[in-house]
Design brief:
This protein is an alpha+beta fold and 477 residues long. It is 33% helix and 19% strand. The protein has an eight-stranded antiparallel β-sheet, with helices on both faces. It has a four-stranded antiparallel β-sheet with strand order 4-3-9-10, with helices on one face. Strands 15-17-18-16 form a four-stranded mixed β-sheet.
């Protein structure tokens, strides 16, 4: 038995030596006072992150294997770091072999069970598969989402079939959301876990799950939240529409454009979220923050106009326009198959949605919402349809008529006019494309050309979508 333990220690230590991952900027709460601390982007490995979060300390030998008692202690530290809790509520220990506070807390809350009602076995070592179940139990206790579909995704581990039945769903779930990993294709479920591996699990769970919450208009929501929860948080939307192709139902909240939000709901869960309101926070990054002053961290994939993160439930992009240099919008989605896309069937509703997004941006800038003009709208719709039919993309139509000549032909009397066009298949992509282009952005935020019309059209095969937005300053205004 001793030889087996020694092998397990060497094996697991070898696995975790290859498992260190970078950390990034985030707001967490200290266990002692509940005040926020910042993990700066220069903290780039798991152990440093775990120490900063208070999960590990300098006395922990990261190559040592972890007992149930010590794992309970690590779990409580994780709980405090993840929730901001400053203490734990306890009863008397039910166990004859252990009265440690952390053990009592974990047992009382169904996180780590004893061998029996009166025996905990505190000095037993924790296996990798057991650790997965303990962590999933903690996630449930803290009220975070457990998406059942993820438990049904079989990991690619060669030895997954050797995982005990009672632990298989938990190993599958944590593997699916990148909280646990293996080594050379193996998971080694019965190997004992080391402090380093435990730190990896807790740190990944913290970043993948605890930081997946998006705060919008002072309430927190996560991709994967239930339809019922979304309804309880935000109430009934102003309007809904269905994208039958993707199976997403879009909920739009536009009654107060300064707090604009839309959600995509599929199979009873939130799978898409967009807001360019003046009140959102994600991973400590707030709307309106000056981009140059934000530490996006080592895990943020930075471009010239956005930063993207992957967490346990999907993808989150935070963006800004080159003109403002301030955080402007947040867009989260599970995957490309769970988002609303513009089509022939949704064009009218997506036009309305894109108007809302644009007018929300204008509201932030202190501008009035655009006024939709029927003649201008017909002109824009004709051009979008023309592009879709003939398969070209440009400001001149198939007859080489310019936007101004088309307006003239519609007998629109104006002193100033302009046009934006797009070939993107999603309203957020259209919005971002226009906000990232100086000329198109100037049109969106014009104080002069406030009478507008928009048209959307899809090609006959549905592969391409075209959007036109015409802006006009009417002569009689």
């Amino acid at each position: 038995m001793k030889a087996k333990n020694k092998f397990a220690v060497l094996l697991v230590a070898g696995i975790t030596a290859l498992s260190s991952v970078p950390a990034y900027a985030a707001e967490v709460y200290g266990a002692a006072r509940g005040k926020p601390i910042i993990l700066q982007s220069d903290i780039t490995d798991t152990i440093a992150s775990a120490e900063k979060l208070g999960i590990l300390n300098e006395n922990n030998d990261i190559t040592s294997i972890v007992t149930k008692k010590e794992f309970s202690r690590l779990m409580v530290r994780f709980y405090r770091a993840a929730t901001g809790a400053t203490g734990i509520t306890l009863s008397n220990s039910p166990f004859v072999d252990c009265d440690a506070n952390e053990v009592i807390f974990c047992a009382e809350n169904g996180i780590i069970n004893g061998l029996s009602n009166v025996t905990f076995a505190p000095e037993n070592y924790v296996t990798r598969e057991e650790a997965c179940t303990y962590l999933v139990n903690a996630i449930k206790f803290m009220g975070l989402n457990i998406i059942d579909d993820y438990m049904n995704v079989k990991p690619s581990f060669v030895d997954f079939d050797s995982v005990s039945e009672e632990h298989k769903n938990d190993v599958a779930y944590l593997s699916a959301i990148n909280v646990v990993s293996g080594y050379d294709g193996y998971f080694y479920p019965n190997s004992y876990i080391t402090y380093e591996q435990a730190a990896f699990m807790f740190v990944e769970a913290y970043y993948q799950l605890m930081l997946s919450k998006i705060e919008i208009n002072n309430v927190k929501i996560t991709i994967g939240d239930s339809e019922e929860k979304a309804l309880s948080l935000f109430g009934e939307p102003a309007y809904k529409f269905e994208d039958s192709t993707s199976g997403v139902t879009v909920w739009v909240y536009n009654k107060n454009l300064s707090r604009f939000l839309y959600l995509g709901i599929k199979n009873g869960r939130v799978t898409e979220l967009f807001s360019n309101s003046s009140s959102f926070v994600y991973r400590g990054i707030s709307s309106g923050s000056v981009v140059k002053e934000v530490d996006f961290g080592a895990r943020g994939e930075l471009s010239s106009t956005s930063v993207s993160y992957s967490d346990g439930y999907g993808n989150v992009r935070i963006g800004w326009s080159p003109g403002s240099g301030k955080i402007t919008y947040i867009y989260a989605y599970e995957n490309n198959n769970t988002v609303n896309k513009i089509s022939k069937a949704t064009a009218a509703n997506d036009t309305k949605l894109l108007y809302d997004i644009i007018n929300a941006e204008r509201t932030k800038a202190g501008l009035n919402a655009f006024t939709v003009n029927t003649d201008i709208e017909q002109n824009a719709r004709t051009h979008a349809t023309n592009m879709a039919y003939w398969g070209y993309f440009g400001y001149e139509d198939s007859d080489k008529l310019t936007p101004f000549e088309r307006l003239d032909n519609k007998k629109v009397s104006y002193t100033m006019a302009s046009e934006n066009i797009s070939k993107e298949d999603n309203v957020v992509k259209v919005y971002c494309e226009w906000m990232n282009n100086s000329g198109s952005r100037a049109n969106l935020l014009t104080a002069e050309m406030v009478d507008v019309g928009m048209g959307m059209a899809a090609s006959s095969n549905g592969k391409n979508v075209y959007t036109t937005l015409d802006y006009v300053k009417l002569k009689n205004k």
